[in-house]
Give the backbone structure.
Amino acid sequence: MYKQVMLLGLLIEKPMYGQQIREVIENHHDLFADFIKKPTIYYQLERLVQDGYLEMRREAVEAPGTGAAHTDFALRERDIYYITEVGREHFSHLLRTALSSYSPALSNVDACLFFLHYVKAEEAVTLLTDRYHIVNNYRQQVLQQIEKQNIHDSAHQLVNDHKLTLLDAELRWLERTLEHLRTVRIVL
């Protein structure tokens, strides 16, 4: 759902072509850049057009070239995406639904915890310590992105606070779990 919210939300602000959308996500919504890749953008745009939420028009626009010519701007034919009235209504519904609900999701680690007893206690500690370092490093990357971008609007502040809060919760859980595993033997 977040992919449709992001794409429709960007297109409410102004009509764009696919590469423009990708660049806006990379430059202004960087936390999503790893989760909404270029092929996914075009797939989602196609679905949104098919569902009547977007209209696509072939237009000549001032745009960069591809590859080495990316810095050369000229009039180029691009598929420009416009949000329809039905698309605006759909965006409004998705936005309100997502903000007012909670969908508990299980992760890979949740499933694995049921079978933790198949791993020796020392190895479980090592594996979860590795996970701790990965999460902590990712948290540091998020902090660096926040500092580098130096964006202080309330939307970015809320997104960043939410992301950091979830990462902090994961780190606290890992700390408790590691302490538990170090003091209690896992029995088959």
